[in-house]
Amino acid sequence: MLTLKVNLNSQNNNSNITFLQRVKDVVSLSKLIISASVTFTTLSGYVITKNTIDSSIVPLLIGVFLLAAGASAINHIIEHKTDALMSRTKNRPIPSGRMSILQAEIWTLIFLLFGTIILLIYTNSSCVLLGLINVLWYNLVYTPLKKISIWALFAGTITGIIPFFMGTVAATNQAPDAPLYFIGLYMFLWQIPHFLLLICKYGLEYEQAGLASVTQKTTVDKILLISYTWMIASCIVSLFLPLFGITHHLTSGIIILVISTLVFMFIIYQLVSKNRKQDYRTPFIVTNLMQSGFMFTLVLDSLF
């Protein structure tokens, strides 16, 4: 009787949800910001490879966004019980009770089906294959690993790199040129501090929800030092991009040098400052600005 009552109450609450809230929940299910970031990464790969933007990029970006939304929706379904245990995720559509698992599955099917069809029609089989591999990797490899190993973050970087190469193969329908793999290396290096600094912020919640967290093994100060090391490594790699012929203009090389120098100066300041007090927010902002600066520079360099 109690279970029946809870289910009836859940159904009643679900039926009282406004249309606007339902739209917001579908957007939340798609993890809009992450899916948009994935889409921009694909755009970067396409433009850097083809040195132009043409009409064929539109269906590519739509298809990639829908696949990313589908992967995110699957993740919502898989992790809804874990999400219910964390304050930052407990208000997501499924754990909050505003959306049933069946409804989420329907939206997942819509996202994945239309995304795959669009990519099949307007790109090529290599691009589609990479996209589907990324969906599976995200949900069948990275997501389960998060519960058992702190090394899951390395698996997570793969899902951030593949969209770039989806853009490159969509542009040429052939394997990427060797220098483009150097950009992939840079993206791998950048994502490590990105994930580590997120863990600094949410590590306690991860632990309470039963997820493996680096904060269980070491202190925030040490995580910051590790993050700075990876940031320096990504900056060093970025300095080699002009040498591999990835940039075409001297100005772009200078911008990359300036960004790297500013990041180096920031890290030195953080290391010698006595007032940093486990400040992980500022490094997180800096590393994301660094990534955005580098990628926008490469895209604009390819276009002009």
Walk me through the topology.
Layout: H1 2-15, H2 19-29, H3 32-50, H4 57-78, H5 80-83, H6 101-122, H7 125-145, H8 152-172, H9 178-208, H10 220-239, H11 250-272, H12 281-303
Shape descriptor reads globular
Helix content: over 70%
Order of helices and strands: HHHHHHHHHHHH
Are there runs of 5+ residues with pLDDT below 50, and where?
Answer: 1-12
> What's the N-to-C terminus distance?
68 Å
CATH superfamily descriptor of the largest domain: UbiA prenyltransferase
Count every helix, treating DSSP H or I runs of 4 or more residues as helices. 12
Question: How large a portion of the residues is in β-strands, by DSSP E?
Answer: under 5%
Q: For the record, what CATH class of the largest domain applies?
A: Mainly Alpha
What is the residue-mean pLDDT, rounded to a whole number? 91
Please give the largest β-sheet: none
Number of domains: 2
**CATH architecture annotation name of the largest domain:** Orthogonal Bundle
User: Structural class, judged by helices and strands?
Assistant: mainly alpha
Radius of gyration: 21 Å
* CATH fold description of the largest domain: Tetracycline Repressor, domain 2
Number of strands: 0
Account of the protein in words:
The protein is mostly helical and 304 residues long. It folds into two domains: 20-176, Orthogonal Bundle (Tetracycline Repressor, domain 2), CATH 1.10.357; 177-304, Up-down Bundle (Four Helix Bundle (Hemerythrin (Met), subunit A)), CATH 1.20.120. Helix content is 76%, strand content 0%. It has twelve helices and no strands.
